[in-house]
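Format notes (please read before filing issues)

Several people have asked whether sequences and structure tokens are stored in separate files. They are not. Every record keeps both together, in the order shown below: the sequence lines, then the token lines. Line labels are part of the format and must not be stripped during preprocessing.
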Amino acid sequence: MKKAMRNYYGLMMFALIALTLGFSTITLANDEGKAKNITDLKFIGNMENQPVFQLNLNNTEDDEFTVTFRDEAGNVLYNDKFKGANISKKFMLKSEEFGDSALNVVVKSKKYNTTDVYTINRSHTYVEETVVNKLK
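Then the structure lines:
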């Protein structure tokens, strides 16, 4: 009887270990097959009192990007397609076209089927400084 119980417990332990190893999965931390954040839009300054923005498309493979500038009403101010790897484009916006309203910049990647949306908000402030210095 003791031998039968020992065999039973041994068989149960073997089954438990086999099931644990059989149904466990290993999860690896990799980004294979997923789109990466490859777009970057930044304000780089003013030229002739017009805002200038730089769009960097940091991809290592050839991809086709569609860039669209829209105002708050949804009117398309600019639309173009770019193809290649590691593209950098500068855009000078005419402030008369959109005034102080917000702009949306939509960058679509054809290869990864992703869309990045940026919002450009402009505000004007007037700063006046008065400095008083003591003379000897």
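For reference, the curators noted about this record: The helical segments are 2-23, 95-98. The mean pLDDT is 78.
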